[in-house]
């Protein structure tokens, strides 16, 4: 697999993470942008790079099991987080820290958006891909796109004001549905 193919694959894998970064960026204050852009970028970049490595390592041993449940895991994690965002947007007085991203949330989002990368990693084992180059390119691409997406989302959040949390949560739920539908009906 050549460099351009890996970059394009990295962009494709980073789309879910970028959308989630944009959705989370909609709900945060400007003073939090850089910190969370860096946090989300690093977490998403790491997991998007680590999961293909893990899939490559697992190879064909667990291929059938992983591909049979990966979409359900992503759907559930994104759905739960999305509903939580909508609830926080509709009832901000119940949670004063609605826009704060904690370690647990970042971890769950990172795993949910990188499960498809695990399956890609399994295919890398069969294609004899240079795994270190592949995971580096995928991770860096995801970091850059997620970092930028937080800023784009924050700009959109300023324009949408009070509806940003509802829109962001809805986006997460639809990303989860998209993943589920793609795997069930592909």
From TrEMBL:
It is found in: Cell membrane. It is a multi-pass membrane protein. The chain crosses the membrane at residues 33-57, 69-86, 106-127, 134-152, 164-181. One of its GO terms (cellular component) is plasma membrane. GO terms for molecular function: manganese ion transmembrane transporter activity. It holds the Pfam family Mntp. It comes from the Bacteria. Keywords: Cell membrane, Ion transport, Manganese, Membrane, Transmembrane, Transmembrane helix, Transport. InterPro entries: MFS_trans_sf, Mntp/YtaF, Put_MntP. Probably functions as a manganese efflux pump. Belongs to the MntP (TC 9.B.29) family. This is Putative manganese efflux pump MntP. The lineage of its organism: Bacteria, Bacillati, Bacillota, Erysipelotrichia, Erysipelotrichales.
């Amino acid at each position: 697999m050549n460099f351009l193919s890996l970059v394009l694959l990295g962009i494709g894998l980073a789309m879910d993470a970028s959308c989630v970064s944009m959705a989370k960026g909609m709900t945060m204050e400007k003073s939090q942008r850089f910190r969370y852009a860096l946090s989300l970028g690093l977490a998403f970049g790491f997991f998007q790079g680590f999961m293909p490595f893990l899939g490559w390592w697992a190879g064909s041993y667990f291929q059938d099991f992983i591909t049979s449940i990966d979409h359900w895991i992503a759907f559930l994690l994104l759905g739960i987080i999305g509903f939580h965002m909508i609830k926080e947007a509709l009832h901000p007085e119940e949670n004063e820290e609605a826009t704060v991203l904690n370690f647990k949330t970042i971890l769950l989002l990172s795993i949910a958006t990188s499960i498809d990368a695990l399956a890609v990693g399994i295919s890398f084992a069969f294609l004899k891909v240079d795994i270190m180059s592949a995971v580096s390119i995928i991770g860096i691409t995801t970091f850059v796109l997620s970092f930028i997406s937080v800023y784009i989302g924050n700009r959109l959040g300023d324009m949408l004001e009070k509806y940003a949390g509802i829109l962001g949560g809805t986006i997460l739920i639809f990303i989860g549905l998209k993943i589920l539908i793609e795997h069930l009906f592909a």
